[in-house]
Write a structure and sequence with these properties.
Arc Repressor Mutant, subunit A; 283 residues; D-Maltodextrin-Binding Protein, domain 2; three-stranded antiparallel beta sheet; single chain; 3 domains; elongated; alpha/beta; five-stranded mixed beta sheet
Amino acid sequence: MDVELRQLRCLIAIVDEGTFTDAAIALGVSQAAVSRTLATLEKRLGVRLLRRTSRHTSPTAIGLRVVAHARRVLHEIDNLMHEATSGPAELRIGHHWSALGHLTPTFQHRWREAHPETQLHLLRINSPYAGLIEGTADLAVMRRPLQDRRFETAIVGLETRWCAMAASDPLARRRAVHLADLSNRTLLVDRRTGSTNAELWPPDARPATQESRDIDDWLTVIATGRCVGVTSQSVVDQYPRPGIVYLPVRDAEPVAVRLLWWREDPHPLTRTVLKLLTELYRT
């Protein structure tokens, strides 16, 4: 038989009230129930916890240590109950490179106005699931399709596709480019988190590829002129960089922006976030 919380509460009540009679009053039970509960706890632990006299009750040496542990256990249980019943106090949304682009400040402002009780955290996490698997995010904003039945996704909006290139590149003087203009270039891709790879091109016109590790590495290599990159509008908004020019790719399909969450254990505010993001991208 395991130690029960009611037994610990009974022990604490006896110590705090000083007598079995007063403990029974504080707990709202009979004195006999208090005696039985304490006796069961002492039998379970195999030690004497209290010294009893006709007028007073005090803890034994081992009883003092058990009481101290019991107080900590009950305090943690109270914290657990408060956490579970007080509603979500924070919401962590993971993303790979660029959050929501130029919509990020608007989203943060509207969230703060509508849900001041829930603190919003936007976290850039360079892992395939943007922190969901690791437990560091409750929801994730993704710009790549994901085939994993553990998760549910919904498209909240579309973003145009842009080419990032060195300012010294001959194409940088144009107002826009097409996919065919990039077929003979080396495309810099992040296979874990990037939104574009060579499959965007027809099979017979795909560019060579080189891998990068994250957004900072991606931008640094492109600035050298060795590679070009193709990405979403949000990266253009979030990462203006000296030495790099962004041009729209006229004939490339847009990037779908998705919200991702655990299918069996969604955050309580998932639908609220989904609705707000969809409204922002629609307008």
